[in-house]
Amino acid sequence: MDIFLDLLARLCTLLAGVAIVTMTAIFAWLVFGRYVLNDTPTWVEQVSLLLVMVIAFLGAAAGVHNHTHLSVVLFRGMVPPNVRTVFVCITDLLLAGFGAMMFWYGLELTEFKWGTLIPLIQWPEGLRSLPMTISGALVLLFSIGHLIRLFLGEDARQDSIDQG
């Protein structure tokens, strides 16, 4: 299971990286079009907004798996290891719940907006919320993976279990 989750997290990171490179390239085209060709491409802003969603949400999902997401570990560091394990479990449960809600409500939003088109590019408006939906499913999956490892005694987070 860990190999599959690691592969998913790497895929998220790869897609977010490709989105950053793509966004950089289309902004270069925007500048070239505006100042050299005197013809500003109008689609760049809308495509960039979609790419930002991909970068943010897939990057966040990979961060949950890789333990690099924003977290406050001050209280976990101040308590004994057995209490710390409870805090880690609660954190993973909350993240799983948050991921499930992101997936469920993101799916509803994506379905609701799919029939509307984004101005200037004529792509489905539901594409704006699709990265959130996918990220929610991944956060749920990654959090469940953390919980399984925690209960099997294989949790490798540096701030979690075996520090005194």
Structure overview:
- The protein has 164 residues and is an all-alpha fold.
- It has helices at 2-35, 44-66, 74-78, 81-113, 130-152.
- It has one domain (2-152).
- The relative contact order is 0.15.
- The beta-strand count equals 0
Uncertain stretches of 5 or more adjacent residues: 160-164
Largest sheet composition? none
Could you say which overall geometry the principal axes of the C-alpha atoms support? elongated
Order of helices and strands: HHHHH
Overall domain count: 1
Distance between the termini: 29 Å
CA radius of gyration is 20 Å
Residue-averaged pLDDT: 90
Strand content: under 5%
Total helical elements: 5
Helical residue percent band: over 70%
**How does the helix and strand content classify structurally?**
mainly alpha
Question: How would you summarize the topology of this molecule?
Answer:
Layout: H1 2-35, H2 44-66, H3 74-78, H4 81-113, H5 130-152
Explain briefly what this protein structure is.
This protein has 164 residues and is an all-alpha fold.
Overview features:
164 residues, mainly alpha, 72% helix, 0% strand, disordered C terminus
